[in-house]
Amino acid sequence: MFQDMFGEFTTGKVGRGKFFLLTLGLGLILIVFAMTIGGGIGVFERLGGTAETPGVQPLALGTLLAFFAAGIVVAIGQLNLIGKRARDIG
User: Fold this and answer.
1) Where exactly are the transmembrane stretches of this chain (predicted)?
2) What is the rounded CA–CA span in Å between residue 20 and residue 86?
């Protein structure tokens, strides 16, 4: 899976079914990542943290940066898959 998404950028082909499954898998990984981070923040706030607590602000910034980094990784993987699928079409 990772070899197809992040492997060779200039060569390779991906079939229709594999493209669909890899795109679906990439989306599910991102959803699970987001739910894990969100659930962790919810548990932290339930255990006594509030928005005014100094510990929450760095946690929110770290979470935002983690989502941004994950979005960049997903975009690179998706663009690589699209490029390979385009090579396969024509």
Assistant:
1) 20-44, 56-77
2) 13
